[in-house]
Amino acid sequence: MLARFLIYIAYLLKNAARYQRCKRFFYDLLENPKSKLKSRFDIFMMVLVIASVSSLVYEVEHDEGVWSLYLENVVVSVFIAEYLLRMWIYSDSHQLIIDYYEHCEYLSIRFRIMTALKKVIAKKLAYMVTPFAIIDLLAILPSYRPLRILRVFLIFRLFKILRYSQSLKMFADIIKSKRFELQTLLIFLGFLVFIASIAIYLFENRSEGGTVDDLYDALYWSVVTISTVGYGDITPLTTGGRAVTMVLILTSLGILAFFTSIIVSAFNDQINGLRISRTFAELENHSGLIIICGFGRVGQQLAALLVADRQKVVIFDISEQRVEEAKQEGYLSLVANATQNDMLEKAGIKQNVSTIIGATGNDVINVYITLTCRHLNKDVQIISRANRHENVAKLYQAGADTVIEPFIVSGLLAAEYIGQPVAFEAIIGILHGQKNIVLEAVKVKAGSLLEKKSISEVDFHKQRLSLVGVISQNAKHLKRKNRYVIKQQHFYFNPPMDFKLQADDILVLLGRATSISHFRDQIEQSHLLG
Amino acid sequence: MIRYAVFGFNPMSVEAINRLDCNCVIVVDQAPECLKQAEENGLATAPIDFRSDEDLKSIGIGKDIKTLFCFFPDDSDNVFLTLSARAIDPELHIVSIVDDPDAENKLLAAGANKVINPYQICGRKIYEWIKKPDITNIVDHTVFGRQDLHIAEVEIPEKSPLEGMLISELQLSTRYNLVLIGVVDKEINDELHFAVGERDHRLDADDILVILGPSRAIRLFRKDVTHVGKN
Lengths: 530, 231
What we know:
The complex is a heterodimer.
Chain A: H1 2-15, H2 17-30, H3 36-61, H4 66-90, H5 93-107, H6 113-128, H7 131-140, H8 156-164, H9 166-177, H10 179-204, H11 215-226, H12 239-283, E1 289-293, H13 297-308, E2 313-317, H14 320-328, E3 332-335, H15 341-346, E4 353-358, H16 363-376, E5 381-385, H17 392-398, E6 402-404, H18 406-417, H19 421-431, E7 437-443, E8 465-472, E9 483-486, E10 489-493, E11 506-512, H20 513-529
Parallel strand pairs in A: 1-2, 1-4, 2-3, 4-5, 5-6
Antiparallel strand pairs in A: 7-11, 8-10, 8-11, 9-10
Helix pairs in contact in A: 1-5, 2-4, 3-4, 3-8, 4-7, 5-6, 7-8, 9-12, 10-11, 10-12
Chain B: E1 4-7, H1 11-20, E2 25-28, H2 32-40, E3 44-45, H3 53-58, E4 67-70, H4 75-88, E5 93-97, H5 103-110, E6 114-116, H6 118-131, H7 133-141, E7 150-155, H8 167-170, H9 172-175, E8 179-184, E9 192-194, E10 208-213, H10 215-230
Parallel strand pairs in B: 1-2, 1-4, 2-3, 4-5, 5-6
Antiparallel strand pairs in B: 7-10, 8-9, 8-10
Helix pairs in contact in B: 4-5, 6-7
């Protein structure tokens, strides 16, 4: 009966959307490293820990105030709540029960309620013995009055900070990566301390005329000496004792050097990875990222333009020197091969990247980048540079949206310049936004004041705008002349006065930036009102 | 008659030559295999040394050739060529590409009229594609592309019927199927005055109109501007 009730509850929880949402929320709050909620919660907890420890320090010499009592209560309740919540989200108990139940059904054995509960409790216990859980518990326990003796463990609250600070966690990870070396060193050190303590005790005990009373003194002396601190409260007086000291000092120098080098090399090994993960962590908070692969001259030019336009840019290059250059310019950059799936995924190609640019001088790499990115994300915009004309088709085939050929474009511009330098400079000036006149696209939104209006009704001249043409896919315009077919779109140059605008047509307008934005605002407003 | 000299045969020069679309181009390159390639493409070539003034003169610089393209990969070669050609003919139009951005000023100092930086242009182009995909798409396929829509500049001669007219009276879009982009009044400065939203401008001789439209319309307009003026 009880067993059936338990299974019923388990299935109920599994299908309860609100329960799942709730659990999900607390997961985001406490554990999900990608959620913004967690980072805020971490800061809050750090403040709480520091406040509680500060009040503790204050109490050492002052009287316990009412406020500090309140604070203590609040802190402890938060800690307890946090501890329980973490335990709760650590495992899905109902899932364990269901799994066990289905397992029993399948093998047609009896469902034992004790076994089920044991499984659940085992899982929770597994959580309780993790280092962080122990620290959490030790931070709570001392506030229980009968256990006042554990006050010293309040210091563990400071260790709790570890949990909330990413960089401290990284430090711990680095130390962990050198576990083997450190273990070796520790064993050797223990051995050395042991020998030194025994030796100094033998040579320097009271009966030999020394100052060492017992083995504890000997241990204390050898640790002080090995660490090169050497307080000098216990000094060797006998010849034998001094000989031991000299040997110990020289050996301890070696050990310290060894220890330092382990830590330094651990950092050296990890620092690159650390930097990269830092950069990736920064990337996660942005959307609409633009990845530029290759920081050559094209990449540099492009990055400068995009950054001036306040776009978020990341630079990938395989050359460390170039990445260094990019960093000096202040760009977010990584020594990374843009053809590696994991690098692109970490940069968020599936979520927050909007555009990828293959700007390297090597078409083979550009094709490979294009192919990799297209494979990872079907919708991302890919623009690639083609250095040789025969590779354009390959890039399109690999999935590029747009292919740009620097040398072809340049040759074209050189020829275009000839014979009409004034017109050329004018159009280039407009396109580059160097003059205050710009060429802009404005969309006719459904329900806005432009829809179903003819050109003569929209007085462009009064708006101080000049209509160059209309881009449209609408079949209604097809019989108009001055039609230019461009990819899948149709461009109607200089449309006549009776040209009726349809929803989703795009107007190509020439005018001052201010007039265009004013015009756009009007459309937006009428669209909202309509 | 040879009117354009292209120094350096590479994809860039091929595109430029295609665009010029006439049989009045001569190709010069130091590498014999490049010259051979150019010949296979049906282009006139000259196996001369660009470092020699005599050789330059022999292909017509200083006489028939009005425009020089310096498409050598090395900036130093382009600077040297620009310098030599400018010394021979002060009126020559010289367009050069540049590899290192620092060399741009050197080329201008040597006498180039226009310096083109392929990397800069490529960077710009990608930026435009990100920023304004629709506009860039249209412009690339019309003005810079194969479609029949071009920009042109039309200078107003003395006694042209357009003299004394206001810009607003031109009505180019209805009368000629052209869009007027702006006017350069040489008497004031070389700046372009845009046709819309600015103070109305009275046209006089030597003003340059910058227009956009199909080539037929441009030809027609150009004829009307100059032809009537002669009467």
